[in-house]
Amino acid sequence: MKKKLLLGGLMGVVLAGGIIMAADHIDAPAVTGPGSTSPGNDITDIYAFQSPADNSKMVLVLNTQGLLSPGATATAAFPSNVMYEFNIDNTGDNVEDLVIQCLVQNGKMRVYGPVAVGTPGTVSMVKTSAPLTEVNVTAYSSATVNIGANSNGTRAFAGPRDDPFFFDLVRFREILAGTATGFHAGTVADPANDTFKGTNVMSIVVEVPKTLLGAAATINVWGETKSK
To answer: Which residue, 9, 83, 187, 207, shows the most beta carbons closer than 10 Å to its own?
Structure first.
């Protein structure tokens, strides 16, 4: 599978805790669909943080297809020709050492890894020999949340979720236009506007034991989408 796009930030994550994120909502021409829609290979955000329920695990989140309305969310899907990758650098050289590969097949998200990359670069082969965690994609109308689990401690979710990213795009544009000098304080007296309120994303969440990520105290994490 050849690399199509790289969206989302490189982030350093201290395994002892903290939360890091990077965001990019439909502003790259290569991933803007008709009517400025966000196709399935458009990464909006990537998050990495220690599990609040178990400090021996890390949670990795890759969100795609930003600004989905409720109506659009009902028909949104992960395309079968796109592979979503979490790249993990545990040696500090900003080159991936481990990878978690996620792709949909027959309505199920198949999550391979973490597994050694082999040959880093812009072309990936599906690591079918890696540990596999499989989960049914949760539908927008579903009253239950599907969670897949592997005996190695990895758990996975895939499906629509409310966009957790907060950004005041109106104020940002006012700053760019020179009609404002800074963002609102976000208080009752000076409230900010959440541009993403009421919109959804298609989300992939993978919880992984830290022991599967190597012995480093800090890791770098970034996301990619790769298309056939």
So the answer is: 83
